[in-house]
Each structure stands twice: as structure tokens, then as C-alpha cells.
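Subject: sequence -> C-alpha cells, single chain

Hey, anyone have a minute? Need the predicted structure for the following. Not urgent.
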Amino acid sequence: MSSDQPAPVAESTERYLQKLSLWDTVNIIIGIVIGVSIFKVPSAVFSFSGSIEAGFVVWGLGGILMLAGALCYSELAAAIPETGGDYVFLSRTYGHGTGFLFGWAQFIVINPANIGIMSYVFADYAVSFLQGPNTETSNSWTVTLASLSVCSLIFLNLLGLVVGKWAQNILTLAKVIGLAAIAGAGIYLGMTNTTPVPETVGGESGSGANLGLAMVFVLYAFGGWNDAAFVAAEVKEPGRNIPRALMVGTIGILLIYLLINAAYLFGLGYQGLLDSPTPAATLLGNAWGDPGQKLISVIIMISSLGAINGLILTGSRVNVRLGMDHRFFAMLARWNHRVNAPIYSLLTQGLISVAMIVLVGTGAGQSLLELPFQLLNWDIIKWEDYGGGFETLLAATAPLFWIFFLLTGLSLILLRFKLPDLKRPFRVPLYPITPLLFCGTSLYMLYSSLMYAWGLTLLGVIPILIGVPLYWMSRNKQSDVPN
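Reply:
Had a minute. Here:
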């Protein structure tokens, strides 16, 4: 087969053991998506929405858009139930080159950055829990704890898929219990508060309606549900269970988000929610004082660890697929059958993630990243515009995430024409409206994220461009299994 033809994506499935049940896959989705956003962004969402009614509409619309994306991925994953998710879909649709660039982007930038983002959240709250919220702390402690969280979870996943999935299930269960505590605190305060709650309509208490910006925050809070497709080959009965997991997971997340937002409003009131940048901490602090503040730190730490573990488990499988098809990365495809885990992929992923944490979180690392631009007299990176490692990594990589999302959404439409005879156990309803809705959302988010990041985007784009010559040097190795 010539190198210009689409990637042969039938794979040697004997390397994978189908150990993930429907419940395991749902836990992966919930564990990744419900990270930390629900503890922070509701204040901004309702402020930019202008009223309670508009705020709930925006949250509901975000859930509908997420469900549209889940339906698209359900069709693709059920028709092509192979490990790698978007890598396989893009390879089938656009050829080896696009699939490689996605795999390379996930390997070198997107997934390590997402792991780093969540690890910074864990570290910030761990420092607050250990030393108190008002204690002045060294940034080195945050960087150290963030790195240790990644290394610890990489170690757990090195013990095998069974250990990794049980860690995910336990962390997700603890996260749900924590969210239930927030809901309970909201009900308790709402029932015991004798102070009249401000009127809930109108935008006068907010900062002025900007529904587009509110939607940016909401869609970020819903991000990550698609990662279940990365482990498709390890899911039992993938043609049936992946669509079910995506559907159950996304609907469950929407219901949880609506419940928690209702708890914030019931316990704090509309103005109280707008006035608090950390509504979860305010709510539990008002309900239970200092122990409540400690509890929210633990809840967010657990939530962050669940997101990190889910990203490690799913992202390492994309690296495996990259190694299967390209000789420069063959080491990533090595699979330890005794523990059923990609050892080298996990180790490399951890190393890159820790390197990112150190580079954006320390003065020496930032100076090193600035050096090439300083040599060209380009003053394009404004570290002071972003509040630490969390926002820096998010801004630098969000545009890359959304452009590949857009390409994957379009691939569903193109594959309907390109491979009309492909067996599709699940077909997206309301075609083509559903995929077009998903693609339009991705296009809007790509534009919004570019406007937010500006020059910082180059920190993510430049490493991906390095992948272009790497692809041309490694493209003569095809998949080991024929079409």
C-alpha cells in the first residue's frame, strides 16, 4: 500500500485484553470530566449569563452540545473499536499524516499539558490543606507536589490495567461522595438561612451579559468526555458499551452539574454566588466552618487525582497506537502482557508531563522557554497575564485541542461518503444536524481559545510542527496487520 493511502487501522487486538466493563468506562468519563471546574467556574458562568434563568440555560446548552459530541464519537468508536480514538478516526478519514499529527500532538503537548493542569490544581489545594489557605508558600512546593502526584499515579498504572481502573473507580466514587457533601451543604444552608435571598432575575447583579464567554467556561467544564474512545480496544463489547458509556457518562455529568449549581444558589443566593470566586469553598465554609474548608480541599484534591489518573490511563493508549504505525516511536507500542499495560508509553508520558510542570512553574523553566523568542526579538509571551501553571498550560494547548475536535467531527460526515459500507452498530441521530452542531461548537471554541491565548499558542504549536519532518522520516513503516 502506498504511503499516501489512508492508514490501515485494523490492529492486532491480541495485544489488548478487554478488561473494562461499561461501569469502568463510565467512571473514566466522569473521572476525567468532573475535574475542578465545577468548584470554580459557576460564579463566572452566572455572572456572564446575567441571571439565574440564563445561567441554567447556558449550562443545559453546554450539556446538549457535549451530548452531540458524544453521539458523534459513539458512531465512530462503535464502527472502529480500536485503541487510539481520534488517531484512528483521523487516519481513516484523512490519511496517515493527519493521524500522526494528532498522535504526536497528544504525545508531546496535549495530554501531558492536561495532566499538568490537573496536577497544579491538586498541588494548590494540597498546600492549602497542609499549611492553611492564608499561609505564604514557596512556588517550589507547588511544583514539587504537582510532580509527585503525576509520578505516583504513573506508578499505579505501571502495575497494570486492573490496578489503574480500580484506582479510577475508587477516586470517582470518592469524588461523587464529595459532590454529595456540597449538595447537602447547599440544602442545609438554604433551609436554615433566615436572611432573604436576593431576587434571582435580571442581570443587574452580574457583570453584564456575555453569553458567549459564559459558554466558553461551561464547555471547558464539560471537556474530556471523548477520552473513553482512546481505550476502545480494552472495553468489553465495544460496539455496544462505548456508545452506552458515552451516553450515560455525559447525561450523568450534566445532571450532576445542574444539581451542584442549584446547591450553590440555594445555599449562597444569587448575589452570594456572584461574589464568591470559589463557591464550593464558601458554601462548605459557611456550613461547617474551618472543617468545611478542609473538606473542600480534600474533595478537590481527590477530584484532581481522578482526572489525572483517567488522563494517564487513556492517553498512554494513544501513544501505543503511534508506536504501532511509526518506527521512530516503536518503543511506545511495547506492551507488558503480564500486567496488561504499555510500560514505556506510561513512563514517557510521565516524564514529559513532569517536564512541562517544571518549565511553566519555575522561573528558570520560563526563561528557557522564552529564550528562542528573545533571540528573534519577539516579545510575545506575557507570563503575568496568566495566573500560574494551570492557566498557562490551558491557554497554550486549548486551540490545539479544539482544532482536532473539529477535524474528528468532520470525519464522521466524510466517512459516511468514503466508507458507506462500513458496519455501524450505532448511528448518530438527527444526522447531519448533530455532527454539524458539534463542528460549529468546536469552531467557535477554537476561535475563542486563540483570542485568549495569542502568542502563548506558539508554545504548543512549535512542538507539533517538529512532528512534520518526523512523520516524513518514519512514514515508511505501516501497521503490522494488513487491511
